[in-house]
Amino acid sequence: xxxxxxxxxxxxxxxxxxxxxxxxxxxxxxxxxxxxxxxxxxxxxxxxxxxxxxxxxxxxxxxxxxxxxxxxxxxxxxxxxxxxxxxxxxxxxxxxxxxxxxxxxxxxxxxxxxxxxxxxxxxxxxxxxxxxxxxxxxxx
Length: 140
What we know:
- There is one protein chain.
- The protein has a four-stranded antiparallel sheet with strand order 4-3-6-7, with no helix packed on it.
- It has one helix at residues 54-62; strands at 32-40, 43-52, 78-84, 96-98, 110-114, 121-128, 133-139.
- The chain has one domain: Sandwich (Immunoglobulin-like).
- By secondary structure, it is mainly β.
- The protein is elongated, with a radius of gyration of 22 Å.
- The chain starts with 31 loop residues before the first strand and ends with a strand.
């Protein structure tokens, strides 16, 4: 029989979703991107019109204090954009990388590259500020 008092294996059950001390679970939802890839004469035009990372928004919301964080430009959630104009489905060969030099700089979001001869597959890899990647692949 155990003595009452200092028990080293004491278990306490908590409800993570409602316990104020521990906060709540982050439900992972994948990031999404709206990317258009078109062929215009001798160039490929890649236009990223929107990017949404629910994980970044959830983290910012969890850290909100007096002011609620607002994201007015989708580019502020993006850490880098990399493009492969001849993607084979296995190896990602970076033809162009857009990685802002300063923390206050943003990615461009619109890119023009020379087009390879014949049909090709273009892959655009977008990485958010938490490291999650979205890969958009288009045949042109």
